[in-house]
Amino acid sequence: MMSHYFTGDNTEHEYREIKFNYRDRVYRFKTDRGVFSRDRIDYGSSVLIDAVVHDASISEGGVFVDMGAGYGPIGTVLGDVLGAKPIMVEVNSDALMLCRGNAEQNDVEAEVMDRVEYDAMEFAEPPALYVTNPPFRAGKPVVLEMIEDAHRKLGSGGSFYMVVQKKQGMPSYRKAVEKLFGNSEIVVKDKGYHVLKGVKMQKPDV
C-alpha cells in the first residue's frame, strides 16, 4: 500500500496530470509515482475542502497551514476559494516540488516547505486555520503530534480541521482534540469520513 506521504525520493518518475472540479473551476495537479492518491483527489480530501470552505472564517490574505500537503490539493484549492495564503508542509523533496508547482500553475500564492523549515519559522501573525488529512499509516504518534502542533501554532480563535474515518480511530482523535483545545465538534459526516474541528480558546486573564 502507498503511504500518505511519498514512499521515498523517486529515481524513476511517472508524472501525470489530474483534474479537480470545484465551484465552477477546474484545478489541475501534477502527480507522480509513489504519491498518495495520484490518480484523483481522494474522497477524504474533497470532504475536508468542502467542510472548511463552508465552516471556516479567515480574513482575505490571511495565512493557514496545510500539514502533510502531499502534492498540494487541499492547500491550493482552499487558498484559491478563501483568498488566503497556504503554508503547505511536506516531508519529501519530490512532494515539495510537485506541491510548489501545483500552487503556481493554479495561480495560488503559497509558501511550501519541509518540516524542518516549518518548525523554525516565525509567524508574523499566528495562522487562523490549520488543516490536515493526516498520514494515518505513519502511526498514531505522528497524527497526535500534528494535533499538538496545531494547538501550539494557532492564534486565539483559530480553528483546526482534520478528516478521519471512524475505522482510523476517530473517537480517539476526537478525545485528543477535546483534551488540547477544550472543545471538539464533528462538522461533517460523509460516507464514513468525519471532519473534526477544534477551536483554540483565548487564555483567561490572570
Would you mind describing this structure in some detail?
The chain has 206 residues and is α/β, with parallel strands linked by helices. The protein has one domain: Vaccinia Virus protein VP39 (Rossmann fold, 3-Layer(aba) Sandwich). 33% of the residues lie in helices and 26% in strands. It has six helices and nine strands, in the order ββαβαβαβαβαβαββ. The strands form two sheets. The chain has a seven-stranded mixed beta sheet with strand order 5-4-3-6-7-9-8, with helices on both faces. Strands 1-2 form a two-stranded antiparallel ribbon. Helix 1 runs parallel beside helix 2 (73-82) and helix 5 runs parallel beside helix 6. The protein is globular, with a radius of gyration of 16 Å. The termini are far apart. The model is unreliable at 1-8 (pLDDT under 50). Residues 27-197 form the Methyltransferase small domain. One of its GO terms (biological process) is methylation. Keywords: Methyltransferase, Transferase.
